[in-house]
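Subject: two folds for Thursday's group meeting

Dear M.,

Sorry for the delay on this. The cluster queue was jammed most of the week, so I only got both jobs back this morning. I'm pasting them in the order they finished. Each block is the input sequence followed by the predicted structure tokens. Could you check whether the formatting survives your parser before we put anything on slides? The first protein is the one we discussed after the seminar.
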Amino acid sequence: MLVATREIILEKLLMLPQLVDAYQHGETGFAARAGQWLKDLEHSLARLRSPLTALVSRQRARIIAAQDGFREPVLNSAKMSRRKGINVTASQALAEVEAELVAQLKEIDEKFDAWRDKLAQFISVASNTEPIPLPPTDPRRDWLHQIWRSWGQIEETRAMYSYLNTVMAPGDRLHLFDELLENNIRSSQ
């Protein structure tokens, strides 16, 4: 589910400035903190079966190898302490993972933008035939499912309903559907 992947990526990216500050200030334990950040990210992504899990694991392994004494060829010519070499390796590993996370986030947002357009069209057509009922206080999820199924029965929206059910995971669809319905309700008040 892309919504969950997006949230995990955002949460982890928001933690990076603290790690960068630790690196900048030469804090002891920076590499260990970076490794733990990668390990936590790896576990979160693995639960979602994200292909990014392998990249994160590989970068974590770079840090472990540096802690065990391995120096990357690019660092061999530089005169630096073992600790500094480990920290540089950890910093590079974080930078590579960050770049991939940002790329993944951009890809997810592009998909969501395209799906939002399709869902907005669907909502526009369906709500002209069958108005949006006011949302209950709880359970909102049931209300969303009810509207979704109801609007799927409208002749003008059946094809779009089938398409949207096919291309989007249920959680992603429900998240965006809720967002757009809320915007629609607010704009009509």
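Second protein, same layout:
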Amino acid sequence: MINKGHNRQILRIIMLGLIFFSGHISLKAQNKVLIIGIDGTRPDALLTAKTPNLDGLWQNGAYSFRAKTDPLSWSGVCWTSMLTGVWKEKHKVYSNSYKNPNVKDYPHFFRRAREQKPNLKTYSIANWKPVHTILQENDATVTIHRKTDAAVTKQVVKTLKNTDVDVLFLHLDNVDHAGHKYGYALENKKYIGAIEKTDKKVGEIIKALKKRKDYEKENWLVLVSTDHGGSGKGHGEAIPEHTTIFYIASGKDVTKGEIKKQVNVIDVAVTALKHLEVDIKKDWQLDGEVSGL
């Protein structure tokens, strides 16, 4: 004989379970990534400068001030390594001229992410326009070039406040300009001053991020790094002053404190992909590792 009361009880349990499960799914925050690239910033200079906004990120996040960029420390080489997750021997960018980059085999990490998650909204907003050279069709939802850091910051703030964005890379260039003009030196007040002014722009950007309408429902990973350091009024050599960089990771999923292992510029793209829950394939042959999560 069928026990209808018993069956109804089972049905209620199943329904409650489905309600709980669906609620649990809806409560899961959506993973998003903001990458702040600050061109030409020596880590020792960053630590010398008064940078309350960047300090707030690394002191409450994961960090390394002894990370490494490519021995051929030119912007084109190093930004490409950061954004592809592989060294120059694979991506084939050997200078700022970007002759014949191998984006077919080693594309921008935006492309890897959108292959698996085609609805991701990916933005690249840069002062130095050549950084966009490796972007192929449909890699970026929006690509924007602005001629000053102030204009880049304004555009980023507007985008974060008003746009459904999942991944945003931004490039600021004033620190590198100061290094080339005045010298990449700790005792150089204009170089240190450029870092301090850039820190204020970082503060504006983080403030805009936290003011997003759905910020509490989102799980942002903020990565901050640079392409190279410098000495005198230049860079490009395989010496510590040029190749030692900083790496900062800030967010809910970060393991706080100094990262003890060697961190490299190529780790940025791989860490971003990991946070975006992209399945990183072996046949991509990425050189970078997840750092700070």
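Two things I noticed about the second structure. The chain is about 40% helix and 15% strand. The chain has a mean pLDDT of 93.

Cheers,
T.
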